Amino acid sequence: LTIQEGCDKFCHFCVVPYTRGPEYSRPFNEIxxxxxxxxxxxxxxxILLGQNVNAYHGKNQQGKQVDLAYLIDTIxxxxxxxxxxxxxxxxxxxxxxxIDVHGKNSKLMPFLxxxxxxxSDKILKEMNRKHNVAFYRKIxxxxxxxxxxxxxxxxxxxxxxxxxxxxxxxxxxxxxxxEFVIAYSFIYSQRPxxxxxxxxxxxxxQKKARLSALQSLLKEQQKNYNKSFxxxxxEVLFEKKGRHKNQYIGRSIYNQSVxxxxxxxxxxxxxxxxxxxxxxxxxxxxx
Length: 287
Ligand code: SF4
Hints:
Strand content: 15-25%
Shape: globular
Bound molecules: iron/sulfur cluster
Structural class: alpha/beta
């Protein structure tokens, strides 16, 4: 359910503020009404979407200014909505009320996609990200205090202009420290009209070598994370049929892809599935 569009942050590598315009939040009542309609049509899980979803702001029925945490709490009061997620977030908009709601609202799933892009303060500054590594680390600490099992995902750009070996090493150390359950990583590439466009100064071979090292580390973390669930039970919402006969695919509370085989229709069912096997990117279960 889209709740917000556009962006005012102007990261130096990104075209969104130019192509999608300034940050805009949809009216609160409209979103809540749509969530109710979705629930009446059988939807169990709502993903609140926006380029800067946690910059969301609106006015509630009483005309009071409210934020994403308030919206999540309001939607969670709809009985048949069992799960809520939101993406994509910017670190500087992770306010305390949003962090608190992760600890207090059991319908908000323990998963957060929070892009950082680099583990080097120098590069974050060059990217105009408006936060440093310590700021991000503090958010992670607070989130883990509220919800110790929260699964974190992120985005990384490697080979950003002026990224030295030391800057890249700092990113690797940061990934090692935080332990992401999944992450999306890309080689820096020029986007027309952005401030970073003319500064692209890292040779392609070096960019590729860095991306390969970074992806190996992330893949290892994801593999170990998935493996830690084998033999345990995990709540899964099955969403669709798989390619094989009687195969169903769903999402765990931590947003992992989980597949199983069943002769009964599991679509839109939430079950406590026993995890029997793990691959790098998915879990296998028995229901
Ligand atoms: Fe905005 Fe995200 Fe693009 Fe930065 S990367 S300008 S926060 S949309």
